[in-house]
Amino acid sequence: MLTDTQCRTAKPKEKPYKLRDGKGLYLEIKPNGAKAWRYRFELHESEAVKESTFAIGEYASIPSGETPEEAQARRRGLRFSLSEAREERTKARALVKQGINPAHHRQRERIKQTLENAVTFEAVAKEWLALKDWEDVTKARRLDMLTRIVFPKIARLPIKSLTPAQILDVLKTAATKNGPTVAAEARRTISGIFDLAISTLRANADPVYPIRKALPTNKTQHKRALNVEEIGQLLRDVDRHGGRYETVTAFRLMWLTLCRPSEAVEAEWSEFDLDAATWRIPAARMKKRKDHMIPLPSQAVAMLNVLHGLTGRYTYLFPHRDDRTKPMAAASFRQMLKVLGWSGKYSPHATRTTGSTRLNELGFPSDWIERQLAHIEPNAVRRTYNHAEHFAERVKMMQQWADMLDKWSKSGIQMVPAKKSAT
């Protein structure tokens, strides 16, 4: 058996020579002074026995004060101490007993590692995004979030190597700099990307799962229904807002139709028939991927006729301020609400909750309200037999809703139940 002193003090000679350790392991001393660990083994192939030599790596004397990280880097460079070379011999012997050539095994592992390193998080993220059945605008928004929040930290890292600690660092930074809503979106997105990686054998586990409860619950989504007084105050505040006319108009369109914020800001003129007072949102832009016809109350028609004189030459009703070929960002609503002092008390998504609550209180049938909100009937049997759109009834309902909004925007006006003829 060798000692480390023998290995360290061995001097070169004119010809290579060996210092044997045992069980096939030896240290070869070359004339140039290089010291290399070798493992000699016999491999049974078919009926023949073939002798081979496995080059484990170079001899290394462990420096004083070497850290675990430095030791790991040294071993990755195939530089081993005596005790480490014995461990490598043990691994190689185990492979030989299975009929595997250690040299071939190392070569395959290197190729595998190279391929895994080439599969970066960014590459899988973009593949995941391309597979989504989303509108281009939605994909662009999600890619923008990834580019700003996630990619700066982990884009170029092999997806298989990412750890929960690294993902937690991404999410904590997002929560600190951008808020819990953005952090929650990043968490869901990263988890979705790992679902694809796992299903395609490019990752073994989702590192999001162990840290899913590490961040505080997102409390910034305010979806509580506003009462009548709050609705009136909000609409008065928005009317007095000195910002862009398009932002205010998009906000009012959302309230007059109870559409989703994204459906309002991304609306295209080709979807509207102002003479017929209708708005048909194509399936591609709807959450449930089904065309949705919305009746327009007279207030909405009048408002959009004015808007057409300003933006009618563009594709979108509410074009982006900097690039008129793109739609306004839904974040414009949040910025306006922040200026008005409504941030933290109300979010645009609460509009639909408010509309549903108030229309039910006004006495309108729930089927009409659910169809206006483009909700799908949860009862499968009832959904099969109930295909009614209730469009004519919704025309009357939404006109009364618009009239009530006008009244509530004037202080002191209370709710009035729906007319009996409407129900």
TrEMBL record:
Superkingdom as given in the UniProt entry: Bacteria
Keywords, alphabetical: DNA integration, DNA recombination, DNA-binding
Record flagged with keyword Electron transport: no
CDD domains: INT_P4_C (cd00801)
Pfam families: Arm-DNA-bind_3, Phage_int_M, Phage_integrase
Location of the Tyr recombinase domain: 221-399
Signal peptide: none
InterPro entries in the record: DNA_brk_join_enz, Integrase-like_cat_sf, Integrase_catalytic, Integrase_DNA-bd_sf, Integrase_DNA_bind_dom, Integrase_recombinase_N, Phage_int_M, Phage_Integrase
Family affiliation: Belongs to the 'phage' integrase family.
PANTHER family reported for this sequence: PROPHAGE INTEGRASE, PROPHAGE INTEGRASE INTS-RELATED
Identification of the protein by name: Tyrosine-type recombinase/integrase
Species of the source: Keguizhuia sedimenti
